[in-house]
Input
Amino acid sequence: MKELALKYGCNPNQKPSRIYMEEGELPIEVLNGRPGYINFLDALNSWQLVKELKEATGLPSAASFKHVSPAGAAVGLPLDETLSKVYFVDDVKIPLSPIACAYARARGADRMSSYGDFIALSDTCDAATATLIKREVSDGVIAPDFTEEALQILRDKRNGTYNVIRINPDYTPAPIERKQCFGITFEQGRNEINLNDPSLFENIPTENKTFTEAARRDLIIALITLKYTQSNSVCYVKDGQAIGIGAGQQSRIHCTRLAGNKADIWYLRQHPKVMNLPFIEKIRRADRDNTIDIYISDDYMDVLADGEWQKFFTEKPEPLTREEKRAWLDTQTGVSLGSDAFFPFGDNIERAHKSGVQYVAQAGGSVRDDHVIDTCNKYGIAMAFTGVRLFHH
Output
């Protein structure tokens, strides 16, 4: 198949719409549903990310995409009891495979942003992964293959309209890529840079020059995630998964703050008060996620006021105070931070430190590199200048 007609483009008024190959066959097969223009943009960008993560780490990988940027990305490390509960997979009756764990991590990192996402899997989608996917609100999934059991589970989702795409894992695109804007064609070489290169961590200008193996893995995950995130972008990673992604901001400090706030929410969801919230039976998953998000925020009275809390809880919870939140966040350590370009000021490091960042990988090359280095030294942070910029548009 050389082309596939689509219902419309980015918006319903943008017709006609299609995807096609100028040479050769499309490397994808739609097994179920009718994916749209944005679905395919998310699917193809997210597939590149998980394929590269798998190649770099050797671990099954998953990504959750929304509007052509990842909301989450992770490798398939086992889930402990806390994360299983935080990601709401502790009630699954079948063992979670490594690819299922990768998906649970990718989806669970930022559940608000992942609502209605498109999923990418580096490995064959099995029944365990399909079971997790079926219970969440999402638009579709792309993977190199699906077991028959998984395919049946997914075909039953969303009244039989759920989008399921199989991609040829051996497909290699042409080395030159093109896109149009305002009727003008842009052309460039594909970004084929290898981010699993030890030389990226050789230039370490900080006093602390020690990167653990886990930190190197997490920084590689951060950089690969940034490679497929709309720029400017910053990514916080811990234990093999992105925990905060700031995408598409004009200011880098805004990227760092946005991603840091998401990383903080990820960690606050593990606070005992949050994990033990007395939700009413059969609360909708989206309502539960939104309630937790508000409970953690400064607007907590929106769900704790009399006449409101009864909609969500069996009894009125105590607020999570600002002091309790800060005390909990101060216990967060071992976080890795990647940036798709240099940090122009030390304020980015100041903000990152508040979210437990101990390792940084960034391009370097700012006229204020000395200020950034000094700020890292102030907190004992190890930072590598990769010399690599990863803008993506």
Remarks:
- Residues 272-319 form one domain.
- The first strand starts at residue 3 and ends at 6.
